[in-house]
Amino acid sequence: MKAGPLFYEKNRLPFGSGQRSIARLALGLCGLLLAGAAQAQVTFPVNGLSEPREACYAFTHATLVKDAQTTLQNATLVIRDGKIVAAGAGAAVPKDAVVIDCQGKYIYPSFVDIYSDYGMNTPTRAGGFRGRDGAPQFISNTKGAYGWNQAIRSEVNAVDLFAVNEEKAKNLREQGFGTVLSHQADGIARGTGVVVTLANDRENKVIVKEKASNHLSFDKGTSTQDYPSSLMGSIALLRQSFLDAQWYKTAPVKEGVNLSLKAWNDNQQYPQIFEANDKWNVLRADKIGDEFGVQFIIKSGNNEYQRVKEMAATKAAFILGLNFPVAMDMEDPNDARFVALADMKHWELAPTEPGVFEKANIPFALTSADLRDVKTFLAAVRKAIEYGLTEKRALKRSPKRLLHC
User: Fold this and answer.
1) How far apart are CA 29 and CA 399, in angstroms?
2) What structural domains and CATH numbers belong to the chain?
């Protein structure tokens, strides 16, 4: 199965029958994107008869949703060798095309999640924060010419770790996703992300862009070193790494080869995504970015609506999660007295965050990251719309400044 257009029967739309303009949810990378490339030499042996399926297909008489503003009636979509080559009301049908009549059906671009860990193994910490002799671990135990702290993993490339996971891909496809930007969520410097489609195919066929982003956070991840042991330490290590990397550009002889710092410098060419997950951490990350001339794309939590003016002042684009808090159990008065008013207000207001960002003209994309169950993604989007996000903005392609591929 190729990741590409999504087909829905009339009145069976992802956001309910009342919504007819489904295009890109604010999760875009590059627009209409399909896995598959032009026919080339086969590098994998075929066990059995060779049956290449790449051909030309024409989907006719469809309602084609091109973007949040444009819906084409009685349109034709032409796909050749796995790529869209024509889309429009007057698109010609090639003579060699397999024609599929889509009368009464809708065709939508698939969604793209730009903050995912799809295809990555869950990071696990080996042991505690002490060495075998019980002494503190001050230096990285990673073998090789890497940096001194295990939380700085800028040399990690998600493309090297990626493996197709059909079960997870199926769940994402059922929510309308066709492509994701995936990375290994481990450490303060996490290395580069990879753009992949959710097709059920070999890794060779689903990778779209090997290195598309650079990822950072304040979380030391699975590092077994004692340092950093606090948020202050994480900030200090992050700032020191920026300074060390600038110094390493001069090729200092006494440093020798440091693959972590080399990768850090190489990764600066990509969009910089910072996982903050809290309104105050957003401001801390932005201050570090300002210090070193980096404009981060911020992965937020759900409480940034509480300081929306400060969020807007960062001039950052945001990736908003939809993991809204669940209702507290208030049936028993003895339990209810332990629920803070601030927690109750957050439960009430967290779903307003996308709508608040829209009203403040802050660029953002939505992500399925952090959801307890990815199958609740569309329900969470509907809830955000209920709480103030407009349907048009929910379906609008993310600003180009978020990512390019």
Assistant:
1) 9
2) 6-39+55-109 (2.30.40), 112-395 (3.20.20.140)
- What is the pTM for the complete model shown? 0.84
Q: How many residues does the chain have?
A: 405
Q: What is the structure's pLDDT at 19?
A: 35
- For 88, residues 6+ apart whose C-beta sits below 8 A from its C-beta are 64, 72, 75, 76
Residue 123 contacts by C-beta under 8 Å, 6 or more apart in sequence? Answer: 184, 185, 186, 221, 222
- Tell me, what's the pLDDT at 339? 87
Of 358, 352, 367, 360, the C-alpha closest to 322 is 367
d(CA 127, CA 120): 21
pLDDT at 28: 35
Predicted local confidence at residue 39, as pLDDT:
45
Q: What is the mean pLDDT of each run of 10 residues along the chain (405 residues)?
A: 44 36 34 41 73 81 86 93 88 93 90 95 68 75 94 97 96 94 97 96 94 97 94 98 96 93 98 97 98 97 96 97 90 85 93 97 95 95 95 68 43
Q: How far apart are CA 207 and CA 44, in angstroms?
A: 16
